[in-house]
Amino acid sequence: MRASTRLALLIGWLGYVLIPWYLPQDGSLAGYPFGQAGTALALVLSGASPWLLPIGLALVAASLLVGREERPWIGRSLVWIGLLGLIAFFAQGFAITLPDQGIPWLAALFGGAGQAQPGMGFGALMTLFSLLLMMCHGLAYRGYCRGDLFTTSAIGIVVLLIGLFVFYPVATILQSALVESDGTLALASFFERLLSPTIWGLGCLGGGTNCGVAWNTLILAVLTGVITTLLGLACALLVLRTRMPGKRLMRAMTVLPIITPPFVIGLALILLFGRSGAITGILAEWVGIPRSRWIYGLPGVLLAQVLAFAPIAFLVLMGTVQGIAPSMEEAAQTLGAKHWSTFRTVTWPLLRPGLANAFLLGFVESMADFGNPLVLGGNFEVLSTKIFFAVVGAAHNQGQAAVLAIVLLAFTLGAFWVQQRWLGTKSYTTVAGKGDSGIPAMLPTSAKVISAVVIVPWVLLTAVIYAVILIGGFVKAMGRDHTLTLEHYRTGFAIDFSNGIFFEGAAWPSLFTTLKVAAISSPLTALIGLITAFLLTRQHFAGRRTLEFTTMLSFAIPGTVLGVAYILAFNVPPVEITGTGLILVLAFVFRNMPVGVRSGIAGLAQIDKSLDEASMTLRARSFTTLRRVVLPLLKPALITALVYSFVRCITSVSAVIFLVSAEYNLATAYIVGRVEAGEFGLAIAYSSVLIVVMAVGIALIQVGVGERKLGRRAVPVPKPKAPKQTARLTKPAVEAAK
Amino acid sequence: MSKAGPASVEFRNVSMRYGAVTAVDTVSFAIEAGQLVTLLGPSGCGKTTTLRMIAGLEIASEGEILIGGKDVTHLSAADRDVSMVFQSYALFPHMSVMENAAYGPTVKGFAKAKAQEMALEKLALVGLKGFEKRYPSELSGGQQQRVAVARALVLEPQVLLFDEPLSNLDAKLRRRVRQEIRDLQQSLNLTVAYVTHDQEEALAVSDKIIVMSNARVAQQGSPRELYEAPADAFVADFIGDANLLDVAITSVTDGRADIALGPARLNLPARGLAAGPAKIAIRPHSLLVSEPGLPNGLPGIVRKSSYLGNHVDLIVESPVGELFVVSPDTQRPRAAGDSIALAFAETGLVLVP
Ligand SMILES: Nc1ncnc2c1ncn2[C@@H]1O[C@H](COP(=O)(O)OP(=O)(O)O)[C@@H](O)[C@H]1O
Ligand SMILES: [Mg+2]
């Protein structure tokens, strides 16, 4: 047995013998090593939890192999010991949970009929880890992944994590939609809920009543997709194909949504166009347009989403327009085509895949958006808000939430499927590598005019909105009383220096929690993401394509669905972590992991595989190769992953609004609370603080990770292929903007 | 560091499949310790795959691979005592020349000073003393290649592999570098496997050549054997140009065959062939241009003639088909349309099975 396997075994024994098996209540160790704080060994020996015995037996069996020389049968035995241990581990965990829950027949098999046990804790975690490593090491001994312990272990860990924190929660949604709380299959009530008129009703067509939420969501998503795509296209064409002034400003605009919490736009719109909004007031006094609540409902949500997501479409379409080789348009011109017909016959067809992609992104973003419909929706309900109110509202109907989550998930997965099947096979790119120089064709004048007419109002409105965000916190009440004041900042962020430093302001606790959670989860996200990317691109193993597909799929899970899934899955044993800070960290890590994977894959695509191979032929194992060769060259990707996951931790609302608790509140959830209470000043002040915090955080990350050094002459890392400039490469940026 | 010395390499019925593609198909060969063996063949025939299987970068789907008599079929690259010089050189762009060269001993756990000393020795050997602090991006292509060679040599591997090492160098440099590699191999007594698609390069440096075609070994042997006794038409054509013609063997006596080639009669070693139709490979310079009416020659008419400085290339139409002829006679170049006769030289004619 190799040294690292012995270490893995040692970890298992520590978890089984020394560390409390369950999650101690309120961190108290009363009764150790028995009772709630008991270790597995003590609980088995005292007869309290006999079902933990098989796990101990697995550890004993593995210990018998310790001193042996490496033979084929050792590897095989390790695989079986690890596998059986894991099965025993999960079987007892899911069989014996709360009283009257779990799987009774399996519980009886383990000798725990009618018993209950609390959620698993650190002892269980260490033992689980050890059993998993044992199995993976056994596979490596048997020659899997060229016998590389690191590779098999990393695959095992990634698969387990994704299974436990993505698949299991999503499966739990299905389960709670289909199964009644007493364990019987309830297909009838499932279909009744699924087909209910509140979801699919068409009342709005005949006038009068509202349409179902599914239709609302779809209509909103289609409108948002179309409008953002058109705006993005106009903008991309203007920036890249005219000598328009202010191009840098336009590019800077694409960064804004990344560091703006999604509901902030909606909030600013209320301050501008709400009944007592600034612009509403001006219009009422000067032009005599009566004050109304038009902003609450479809128009407002649509406006907010368009403003929030159009920059994403712009980013995607910039890539597409840049990818159209000027030489092709020049070719068309030398063949006698005029400006307009070049655009129509060459440029436009090449743009189409990019347009479809931009539309789908806007479509999915809109469906997944939660913050704007929440603050601006009024009576206009969409799936994400309906799910939220089903969970936290008076009805407290988890079955209904699960059904709605399934509908929403079906929509986003459908869009994802279309994107993969249809766009995945089409080539977006015309940049084939070298030699494609030339001067891009300028836009025909009519197209210029149309684009400008569309864009100028948009840019102006965006500018006004960000001005509101900046100024709003410094006036008494935007729209009503424009006296300058520091009152909102004082409420939120006052510090009392009279007795040392006391963070008095109401916003401090949530800000500190947010920063802490972001600081813990973003390195984890980057680490897991980059390792997964390394496995996916650089290693061959059975099931690689499935793993790749799974990580891609988790892109398509809307935050609201993930949030619901987490409370459904993790508020009962075996994993009972709702209300803790841990669940927030986990939610962020697995929600943002695709971003890490994406930037890792994009980064690795820039590093020629022969560098890894050269390292391997120089006797370096894959861990050393990863550390000495790949990671230093991956620094840009590392920065991207860190920045995006950090920013997304701070800005995201949908996934975590279900998961926050009084003790662990997050900035965005706090702000949404202020908005609902009508304290707009504090909300907007806090939002601008968040934007500043993110800017500082990004700068710190960039300084901390440092530049990658490739010699004094700037020469790119050898590239395996011509860099393909596809619209989809910008996905991390897009993801981050959610 | 204990020097293991050069080791032999042996393939026994090795195959490599990628899904439906068979990149290497039941290949067997042996490389003796201390020899330089080239894998030669057209692009896509499986040379790189074979080399990567020696390195352990691909694990064979079938068969056994032995290095120094030990079965290494399932060992990973990091566990084999084999180094490789990559076609792209694969220098680590974020490390200086010194760090690149010292990478092997460093990851093997040698102290930094010792690792640098080992690296410096090999860098000096390839003539790169004084370049230690530079980064790969600050070197010319030729220098980069030397760094790659030095880096591969530092651990004094049992087998050293080169994948088309000259393909990124300009034509002038190639001749010199291939000779340097050969000198290095001989003076350090290394086992080297060398991949190329250039037959001239292979002939110039090898102790032994393994010719591959369509994922299989077409023939292996010394350069002279391959040239003078090609196993089949493919090898005859690939190693030095050849005119491949249909002939009839009229009789075989004492291992020599009487052959009818159009109107001409030849007598060549039979190479195990019996009477009947066969093929002959005739090197372009073994067809000698003479005046028409030559007894036992091939009459012909010049179709094309190109003057190339030290020789003349001719395309000649003859009763047995179009022939490619290289004539050293630059003083009286034949013009298109001239009637000539072709005589046969003593060497450069061979029956192919
Ligand atoms: N990773 C791979 N996956 C699929 N096919 C491959 C792979 N590597 C090589 N091949 C195929 O195997 C054959 C031999 O390739 P290679 O060994 O690189 O040829 P050579 O080096 O002689 O040009 C080619 O047809 C190539 O397409
Ligand atoms: Mg090759």
TrEMBL record, chain A:
Residue ranges constituting the ABC transmembrane type-1 domain according to the UniProt record: 214-419, 511-701
CDD domains recorded: TM_PBP2
Transmembrane segments: 7-23, 43-66, 78-98, 118-137, 149-171, 218-240, 252-274, 294-318, 401-418, 449-472, 517-537, 549-569, 575-593, 680-703
Any one GO cellular component localisation term in the record: plasma membrane
KW NADP (keyword) present: no
Subcellular location: Cell membrane
Biological-process GO terms, alphabetical: transmembrane transport
Keywords: Cell membrane, Membrane, Transmembrane, Transmembrane helix, Transport
Membrane topology annotation: Multi-pass membrane protein
One Pfam family it belongs to: BPD_transp_1
Disordered: region residues: 716-738
InterPro entries recorded: MetI-like, MetI-like_sf
Superkingdom of the source species: Bacteria
Family per similarity comment: Belongs to the binding-protein-dependent transport system permease family.
Record-given protein name: Iron(III) transport system permease protein
Automatic annotation (TrEMBL), chain B:
GO cellular component annotations of the record: ATP-binding cassette (ABC) transporter complex, substrate-binding subunit-containing
GO annotation, biological process: quaternary ammonium group transport
Alphabetic keyword roster: ATP-binding, Cell membrane, Membrane, Nucleotide-binding, Translocase, Transport
The keyword Isomerase appears for this protein: no
Domain of life: Bacteria
SMART domains, per database record: AAA
Keyword Magnesium: no
Molecular functions per Gene Ontology: ATP binding; ATP hydrolysis activity; transmembrane transporter activity
UniProt xrefs under InterPro entries: AAA+_ATPase, ABC_transporter-like_ATP-bd, ABC_transporter-like_CS, ABC_transpr_MalK/UgpC-like, Mo/tungstate-bd_C_term_dom, P-loop_NTPase, Transp-assoc_OB_typ2
Pfam families per record: ABC_tran, TOBE_2
Alphabetical list of Gene3D superfamilies matching this protein: 2.40.50.100, P-loop containing nucleotide triphosphate hydrolases
PANTHER family, per the entry: MALTODEXTRIN IMPORT ATP-BINDING PROTEIN MSMX, TREHALOSE IMPORT ATP-BINDING PROTEIN SUGC
Family: Belongs to the ABC transporter superfamily.
Protein name (database record): Iron(III) transport system ATP-binding protein
